[in-house]
Fold:
Amino acid sequence: GAARIAEEVKNRGLEISVAVVPKTIDNDVPLLDRTFGFETAVSSAREAIDVANTEAEGFPNGLGVVKVMGRNSGFIAMHSALGSCVVDLCLVPEVDFFLDGPGGIVDHLYERIRANDKAVVVVAEGAGQKLMAAMGAAGETVTDASGNILLDDIGPWLCRQLKTRLDPRLEEASDHGDKLTLKYLDPSYSVRGIPPLTADNLYCLQLAHNAVHGAMAGMTNFLVGAINTRECYIPIPLVADKRNVIDTRHQSLWETLVFATGQPSFQREGDDAEDFDALTTASGGVVLPN
Structure:
């Protein structure tokens, strides 16, 4: 949108500068270390995870499931899961997963619940869409007012699948016949509709100042942000039609999460880390074309 406005301004010969301060809590703007609002969203999601963990601890065979925002990029889920230190499974749009069999999430959660009497799952809203479609959960394609395809709701669907599969196994293994006690949290807009943290306020102020300085210096068709901690002016065409997603291959933060949770990696044969030209970001992302 901003690039088209800048092009039209140029075509009309108008003395107008187009400067962009990128806003998205999903942290999916390419190249940037982070976008403002992201740290606040992660902090809020972390609070929901703590609640889910407390609920899971309070019941035999407890399972807390938390769904957080993230249509195409699972940064909120990954960062909040790592920051909580209590999550046993994190599901994101960038990594396909499966339910049953060796290496599936059902076996993993069963083992965690048997060992600890509880488990916690964090799932991004865009995770598991292919699996749900393959299992018949998808209906007609529906879009919102902005043209975004409305996703199938992974949260309730995942809860049903886990409940159905874990109930008989846990009941049989339990001394008292206890089934799964599942608690589902969807913090939804409470993650993004809250006052920003001080760090986000400060970052936004710096971005706004830089945008004005760039415009007053005669620049246009640019966005402001930090790359490798340096405040930069970035031409909009450099990031247009690209997206920042979790880097799952280049000794990234995702690998740290897999080690921390002990969850299956879901890597396929042929996955490697030899793409030396990949553009990676400080928050554990990699830049991909749309």
